[in-house]
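Below is how a single chain appears once it has passed through the pipeline. First comes the sequence as given, then the structure the pipeline wrote out for it. We keep one example in the README because the format questions we get most often are answered faster by looking than by reading.
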Amino acid sequence: MGEAIEHVPGRVTYLVCVDDSEDCRVALRFASLRAHNTDGHVVLLYVIEPADFQHWMAVGKVMEEEKRQEAEQIVQTLAAEVYDYAGVRPILFVREGRKGDELLKLIDEEPSIDVMVLGAAPEGKGSNELVRMLTGELTKRLKIPLVIVPGDLTDEQLVQLT
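Resulting structure:
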């Protein structure tokens, strides 16, 4: 996971910060279809946020390992969905830290990433924490376009948009 991304002029690389939410899957489908239709790439980033519980070192280590295994399983599942849905093999990253910080770090480290795609949870369903961060205080640090996709779009609507 986390291989280098080759920049090819004219090919757009879409970054999706993933989790197991439905709005994330809609953003993922949008990015996958765009990449498929433009001969582009998809990058998936899963960020493991720091655990609040660090009472006992041994327990903390076990929790970290469990979180890492869960993150890798989610990313592999989503990568398979991207391939099945649009025939695109995504590049995968799993990082530990604060979501906004790790996202901006990856964009800085990988200049071939062209567009960030986020899913917005419909009102009352899920969290839009990352959307709020990236449209608020982190906007000044974001160096690429940000596409926010409504999390309740259907596959038919996504096909029409891409």
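The radius of gyration is 16 Å.

See the next section for the split statistics.
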